[in-house]
Amino acid sequence: MNGAACSDAVDDYHCDCLLGWRGKTCDEDIDECLSNPCLHGICTNTPASFKCSCSAGYTGVLCGEKIDNCAEVLCNNGTCKNMVNNYQCICKRGWEDADGIHCIQNSDDCVNINCLNGGSCIDKINTFECDCSVGFSGKYCSINKDDCEPHSCHHGGTCVDGANTFTCICPKGWTGNNCSDDIDECDSHPCNPHRATCTNTDGSYTCTCKEDYHGDGITCNEIRLFTYGLKVGDQRSWINAHDYTSPIFSPPFGIPFGNSMFYRLYVSNIIHLLSLNCSILLFNIPLIYLYQQYP
After folding, report:
1. pLDDT tens for residues 6-31?
2. Is the pTM of this model over 0.70?
3. Would you call 186 helix, strand, or coil by DSSP?
4. How many Cβ atoms from other residues are within 10 Å of residue 23's Cβ?
5. Rounded-to-integer distance, Cα 157 and Cα 184, Å
6. What architecture is the 184-221 domain classified under in CATH?
7. Which of 38, 181, 286, 289 might form a disulfide with 176, Cβ 3.0–4.6 angstroms?
C-alpha cells in the first residue's frame, strides 16, 4: 500500500515501504512530529510527512531561520539590531529618533552646559563648543587670556591684566596706554621762571640757568663780573617771593652788586642768606633779597 513495492517470498511476501510509512503492508503512517523537527514552531503530522507552523519571527521548513526584520528598515545614523519579530535601531552618539524616523535628529549636546563669562554654546554632532567672549578661552570659557602677552608696557611700565584688556602702570615721566608718551615736565614750569630754561628729556627734564647765571636751574645766582673768578660772594640770589617786610636797611648810597647799583634791602624768614661780599655788611639772619636798581 501507499506506493510500496512488494517482493514475492516462499509462501510469503515483503513490502518495501516508502518514506513515512511502515507496517506489513505499509499502511501505518509514521508520526514525524515525535522527533520534534520544528525548531521554532508547532509540528503537524501529515500522511508520510509533517508540517511546521513557525513562530513569529521565524521561517523555513523547520522554522530554523530568523526573519531579518532589518532588511527593510532604515536606521540612518544608527545600527539595526534584528530581534524576534522585531528590530531595534541603536543610534550613534549624538543622534536620536524624531517624528518616527530613526536616528535622524542631532541630539542637543548643549543641554545642561554652562559656558561662562558670556560665552554661548554651539551644538555639534555628539559634542558641543563654547563660543567664548573676547578675552576668554577654554572648554567652558573659564580662562581669562593674558592680554599682557602680546603687548608691552614701554620704559619699564608694569602691565596689569584685566578682562579683555590690560593696564600699564607707567614709571615717572611717562604716560599713555603703553607708557610710550613722554610727559613734558616743562609744562609745569619746574625751573626758575626768569633765570633758567627747561629742557624736556625722555622721562625727565633738565633746568639750565641762563647766561650770566649759575646754579641748579631751580636757584640761579647772578655771576658778578670780577676779574678774579667765581668765588663765594660773587653771586646774588634771585628769589620770587612776596612775603618780605618793610625795608630795614635803606642806605643813602648805592650798593654795587653784580653789574648794577641797588639801594634797598629787604628781610624775610624764608631763605638764609650770605653776605654782600663785604666784611661789614655780613648778615647771619634769614634774608631774602629784593633789590631795586637806580634808574
Report:
1. 787 777 788 888 777 888 778 888 88
2. no
3. helix
4. 14
5. 18
6. Ribbon (2.10)
7. 181
